[in-house]
Amino acid sequence: MNVQSGRIRAWLRVRAADPEAAAVAIEPYFTQGGDAWVIVRADVVDGGQHNLVIPVDVAEGDGTAWDTVLGIVREAAGVQDVDVERVVSYHPTPTHKAHSYVTAAEVEAWRVPEFEKHGRHPQSPGANPWG
After folding, report:
1. What percent of the chain has pLDDT over 70?
2. Contact 43, 53 (CB under 8 A)
3. Under a CB-based contact definition with an 8 Å cutoff, are residues 88 and 3 in contact?
4. Range of the structural domain that residue 104 is part of
5. Domain identity same for 11 and 44
6. How many domains does the chain have?
7. Distance (Å, whole) CA 60 – CA 58
8. DSSP string covering 23-68
């Protein structure tokens, strides 16, 4: 499916001197941005040129939202490089049909209303109002 949702959905692939510190610096922004922008999460990764991957979702019509998100990531502790991989099509369609699995240990460690037992998230990656 071609992405024509009015949103910019992208993966920011980051190289940071200390990816854990960069992720911690970005974490306070996960609950900010409202409908204008969303920093979904920050995953520390290995096995490639980048060591931090950050999925983002930004309103296309908001001229400052994209710059705000990029600024937050670029200014995080020790960030050396940010590579933008913009989504041009995604599968499954719509995106909220995507799957995830939550372990029993995660259910116990982080109680949330939609999980009473381990398994697939019923609305992975969440009840996303923008599609």
Report:
1. 74
2. yes
3. yes
4. 96-126
5. yes
6. 2
7. 6
8. HHHHGGGGG-STTTEEE---EE--SSS-SEEEEEEEETT-TTHHHH
